[in-house]
Structure formats: C-alpha cells, structure tokens
Specification:
With 82 residues, the protein is α+β, with helices and mostly antiparallel strands. It has one domain: Translation Initiation Factor IF3 (2-Layer Sandwich). The chain is 24% helix and 33% strand. It is built from two helices and four strands, in the order βαβαββ. Strands 1-2-4-3 form a four-stranded mixed β-sheet, with helices on one face.
C-alpha cells in the first residue's frame, strides 16, 4: 500500500469594510458568512474591533481570531467551528 499526500488549497474570502458607516460593516460580514463554505475562511479588514459580532459568530457556529494591523486596523478571520 502506498501512502499519498493530498494538498488542499484553503479558500479565503477577503472583505475590506474600511470607511463604511455602521451598520454596513456588520451587514457585509453577515452576508459574506452566508456564502462561506466549510473549510474556507473569511478575512475581514476593519477599522475598529467588531466586539458585537463575536457573540453572533459563536451563536451561529463560527470561530474567529483578531489581530491588530498597521494603520489602526484590525484583521478578523472567521471560519466554521467543526
């Protein structure tokens, strides 16, 4: 029996919501999540930490990570919790 290695390219959707007025950044993120497939990630560039979104993500079966970026921006990564 021969072992094989399969590389799977991870799909990542990039979404920049900088410059949008509330509630549009939240709306755009939620719309993008509706199309997010299992195994894919949503990467969001946003001007403020989206704290209200965290409970929504957890309640709907998503995990996330957040990191500060240069220029007072945040990068939010979201994926399906499995």
């Amino acid at each position: 029996m021969t072992a094989s290695i399969m590389k799977v390219a991870m799909l990542q959707i990039e979404l920049n919501v900088c410059g949008l007025e509330a509630p549009e950044p939240m709306e755009r993120v939620l719309e993008a999540l509706c199309t997010l497939e299992r195994g894919a990630r949503l990467a969001v560039l946003i001007e403020r930490e989206p704290r209200p979104l965290y409970r929504i993500l957890a309640r709907n079966g998503y995990q996330h990570s957040i990191s500060e970026q240069p220029g007072q921006l945040y990068r939010l990564l979201v994926w399906h919790a499995d």
